[in-house]
Fold each of these.
Amino acid sequence: MAAVESFSATHPGDPQAGDLIEIFRPAYQHWALYLGDGYIINVTPVDEGPPATFASAKSVFSRKARVRMQLLKDVVGNDTYHINNKYDGTYAPLPVEEIIRRAEYLIDQEVSYDLLGNNCEHFVTLLRYGEGVSDQARRAIGAIGFVTAAAGAFSLLGLLRSRSRERQY
């Protein structure tokens, strides 16, 4: 398996039209789809000022997003990115012409957004594969499920302990 190389605005890679771009923000990954000629398509909060980043806390709670065509270097800013078509082994990519046609149709459209069920990774994988998938969301849902189960177990243990103390007196 080849090493994954990181790129930045000052050290750009060579993405091809239809490639998935994974941008590494300080606390999460943002996803975009490369259109060609330095441009990507991605989703940003509807009412966010400069559309280049999806880094605000507002994006976590946003229920709507705007599809934007932007320069990759502007969206990446000071962060790094990978060309990451990681689902190609599981899903067959659509023909590049269809990916680009579908993407261009959505530019400037308002779309629903949900961090766990319909996020930026779901958006770009739906364009590339015709199937919206997100490992990032799957991991978050798994973590939420684990925390919920752990909280339930600790609550049950606390209840059992308090009942066993009550019996001793």
Amino acid sequence: MKIYTRSGDTGQASLYNGDRLYKDDAVFQALGDVDELNSALGVAASFLTNKTLLEQLEIIQSRLIDVGSAVATPLPTSPENKLQRTHFPGVVHAQQLEGWIDAMDEHLPPLKNFILPSGGRGSSALHHARSVCRRAERSVVVLSRRQTISLEVNTYLNRLSDFLFTAARFTAHSDGVPEVIYKKSS
């Protein structure tokens, strides 16, 4: 099988349910943002050494493929068998993220100030991934407001940005790199 199909050369692409849409459709915007987030996590992982965090990121990257499948299968136009195959239990996966957040939080000093994205390469890459995650979340909100995807996708991405913020802080702390405190202009 070749990687190229030429089916998108006219500016349209197919969703999992077979619908063909223009590539500037909100569905493809969301899919692209989720894909970019997955790539940002891959970059972040290349700077990390904590085995547990690396294992968690690998799980998250797989869940993001699941998120993409759910996004690519709109609720109102997809047959039941495809909806069942791509159902994303976001609340369950968000609870897993919460457990990981709580475990990292136990090792962190309380946050008393706003911090700038900083803390070394790994921490900064995780902060960047968090920003990309927020954009992906905004993209899927458009779809959930249209009721074409489950709100559980929003729940997961919202919690994922919390996880990435905490993971960035945890990485800076573990690496012994100070976080840079925001200073208000005078």
Amino acid sequence: MPSAARQLVSNMLSFLSSPSPQNNVSEKGASFSTPQANRKNKVNGSRRMSDSNNVAYSNGKAPFEGNIEKWEPNVYEKELLRRTWSDEFDNLYELGSAIYCYIFDHNPNCKQLFPFISKYQGDEWKESKEFRSQALKFVQTLAQVVKNIYHMERTESFLYTVGQKHVKFADRGFKHEYWDIFQDAMEFALEHRLSIMTDLDDNQKKDAVTVWRTLALYTTVHMRNGFIDGLKGVNRFPPLV
């Protein structure tokens, strides 16, 4: 990867290396507030997390039943997110690339949202500067959410605004249903990343997968809200005057 681009992204994401409140992630008996983010729980149905098929967490706690829009991870969950997130450039690019490759493989129609792809033969677009830029944009959104896991009140309006900005892609065929494939892609890429981590035991990996699935759902629900409201000309978070 170009050194200038590497340094730019490293600088933009350096905030993730700032100290966070101390807590032992491996603390036994830590309680979970995280709802189980199953793939079948999409759109409005996903906003109330009450699935009788959900299994208990590794600590024996039952899944949380609540409004995903107001999800507040507890201390243990926040530390799991921090511990399993990396702002290293190559990791960020690989994650973003995996997300978009999953999207394009499972819904090729999404390629029409990115006209630059048509300029390249076959899969050459995967090595293009446009694709690298797009892949990094998405993980920067995730990075911003991770940055604010101790200030969740900031994330709702941020993600809502990101969703509103996607209204400009409606003319290219972007539909609110596409948020589902984005959620699935995040879950797939993040689960693979967790599966190869060596500093977590099996229970911690299972718990981390649950937390990241929930964060993926939380993220897409708020972006979807912003997109749908944007199409209607509505803004739940008007700029301060």
Amino acid sequence: MARGCPSCSCTLRLTSIPVCPLSVQTHRDGTYHYNLGKALAPLRGEGVLVLGSGSATHNLGKMGRDDEPVPQWASDFDAWLRDSLLAGRYDDVNRYQEEAPHAKTAHPSPEHFYPLHVALGATGDEPKAELIHHSWAEANMSYASYRFTTKR
């Protein structure tokens, strides 16, 4: 069975794998969503995978063609996010609206970015980020993908 996502019209496929979707709270901040993830962290011991689905940059109003160069604002935000995550500056990521270059342009609304905060928090104590995929689409959509594990 498939249904459309009310936020961005993507299609969700429902399978026999148990899924419990969480709604992000756009009126809250990154720290709230990180702490929401921290509350889910004990589920890792039960074999539960927390998967955040979003986009490292997401501005539909500034989309271009795939063959266009990546705008500087998107490149700057994406590089800041990568550097912050890989260096373990998670407080900066939680406060991205104050810390990141071009944050409001990269994410005019946060619903496609907060899943990253939940997934990061769900890692538990001493998270470690790893970039596992990076690509661009429609000029400004960064599909950087990160895996979060514990340092231990």
